[in-house]
Amino acid sequence: MTTHIAVIGYGYWGPNIVRNFSKVDDTEVTWVCDMNPKVVAEIPHLYPTIHVTNDVTEMLNDDNVDAVVIATPTASHYALAKLALAAGKHVLVEKPMTQTAKEADKLVRFAKKAKKVLMVDHTFIYTPAIRKIKSIIDKGELGEIYYVDSVRTNLGILQKDSNVIFDLATHDFSIMDYLFHQMPLTISATGISHKQLNQETVAHIAAMYKHNLFLHCHVNWLSPEKIRRMIFVGTKKMLTYDDIEPSEKIKIYDKGVSFTKDPKQSYQLRIGYRSGDITSPHIPIEEGLYGMAKEFVKSIQSKKHPITDGEMGVRVIRCITKATESLRSGGKPVSLSFRA
Q1: What pLDDT sits at residue 196?
Q2: How many Cβ atoms from other residues are within 10 Å of residue 273's Cβ?
């Protein structure tokens, strides 16, 4: 049975969405909705079978449409997703899911009431590299994880309705959620704002999890260099993940530090350093968006929750809103509650 997909928004991310869903088996992109007349005029030349419109209602009134993908600015996510769910469509929302945790919570409730799939496009979760890292951690190869250090920088794209935390740190919190299945206990952040945008453009975030797991995240819209790098430090081994690296994205270092008491002087510690081999596991080549598209269609057809479901979307929104709250209060640590 073919799943018919409609896409709202064909600007920055929309073309990639359409391209990847067009490759999924038993799936057909049947509509694209966009307010830009140039986009509406261009699509028939690229995809002759896709209907185009600038009217969301016209698209949602098509009973053949099974699901809607929303790839518009963050400020419009809540209203459009609510409209699509009310029309009886499954919904995939580009990250971040909404602007507030309350909006995200409401969407989850709407989806449950409508008995429809609500999914968030946390693309990195569907990359072979992150899947491999999860396998390595779950097998205990790194031991107990001490901390995770992440850097995500590039020059732009500056956004008026979303700050750098919502844009980039969303990836880190979704990855941590997927790998460790827990929310931070506290979050603190410092950074700077771009005066013309009145939005944060650089941020350093510190998040403390249970069992002394620590995340440090540096996100930056004002860097001359694009960096997408994470470091995982464990009691047994260490791992680096560089998404920009074309071949050896993951490297595992047989390095570590051990602490033992000096038998001669009980109040002192002996520090031992271990330095062994560096290995780089094979990572299959598959676009994260393609994996995401397959997961959405699979969830619709199997009637099962996707990995990055609405509940994960809520948890991530809580993290990034609390980080923003901390930054705007001068870096004061903020505790995470389980209420929106």
Answers
A1: 76
A2: 8
